[in-house]
Amino acid sequence: MLEAIRCWRDAGEAVARITVLVAKGSTPREAGAYMLVTSREQVGTIGGGRLEWDCMAEARTLLIEGGERLERHIPLGPAINQCCGGAVTVGIERVVDMDALEREAWKEREGLPQLILFGAGHVGRALAKSLALLPLQLIWVDAREDEFGPVPPAVDAQVTSDWESVLDATPAGSGILVLTQSHTLDALITGAALARNDLRYVGMIGSRTKRKRFESAFRAIDIQQEQIDKLVCPIGDFGVRDKRPEMIAAFVTAEIAARFLGE
């Protein structure tokens, strides 16, 4: 959303904001959810369906014709062919201060959980695309600049071999996902992450055989078994034996979404 706000601000686009003010009963989005609309584009969602379609139409009419901020109370029933069963109150207004909106979006992003993705190989590239869709701060790290390819919007790609500094700067409660080109590097990063014992998720690509070998090495450097037990390896293990990068990425993204966002 932040990237869209910057683009529209720089282009001088008129923007309307649609916000769920009140949500009662079964509703597709919660109070506080919002989306932004221009004459031709939109970003975010208030839940889709006829609810969103009608609100977008009103927002675009407001942008064209002007007028004051308005509110709509919308029962989600037969009248709009949307049978959620609840009701929402929606506010629609023209954005008059794009700089303030950008600051708000930036603050929202800074409040998101952080996930560090080590490795820009074929699975790393697939994961970066998939994880970029989640409400996380994704930092993507590799020393090989040419391996990244196109970096998805909102992803912080860092070309560095100094993984220790990146890990040291990672806040408690963050996640670490390790899939480098080197088993030695995988072991170093994963061992250091487990030794911290304050991360929400530590995942490493690999088989159960790789895990057993690494567990022995971790015990040899005095990492406690209860810390080792927190390691997720294999990652994305939903019992589907498909090793295509896109499939691995899909399952790992689901795993991380459940760990970070399922509470």
In short:
This protein has 263 residues and is an alpha/beta fold. It has helices at 2-11, 49-65, 98-110, 122-131, 163-168, 183-196, 208-220, 225-228, 245-261, and strands at residues 16-24, 34-37, 42-44, 70-75, 87-94, 114-118, 137-142, 156-159, 175-178, 201-204, 231-232. It folds into two domains: 2-107, no CATH class; 112-261, Rossmann fold.
Characterization of this structure:
Helix content is 40%, strand content 21%. By secondary structure, it is of the alpha/beta class. The protein has two domains: 2-107, no CATH class; 112-261, Rossmann fold. Helix 1 (2-11) packs antiparallel against helix 3 (98-110) and helix 4 (122-131) packs across helix 9 (245-261). The two termini are 23 Å apart.
- What is the string of SSEs from the N terminus onward? HEEEHEEHEHEEHEHEHHEH
DSSP E strands, number: 11
Count of domains: 2
Give average pLDDT, whole number: 93
The CATH architecture of the largest domain can be named as 3-Layer(aba) Sandwich
The N- and C-terminal alpha carbons lie at a distance of 23 Å
Provide the spatial order of strands within the biggest beta sheet. Answer: 8-7-6-9-10-11
Inertia-based shape: elongated
Give the CATH level 1 class of the largest domain: Alpha Beta
CATH topology of the largest domain: Rossmann fold
Task: Estimate the helix proportion, in percent.
Answer: 25-40%
The CATH homologous superfamily of the largest domain corresponds to: NAD(P)-binding Rossmann-like Domain
Rg (CA only) = 22 Å
Largest sheet: 6 strands, parallel
Structural class: alpha/beta
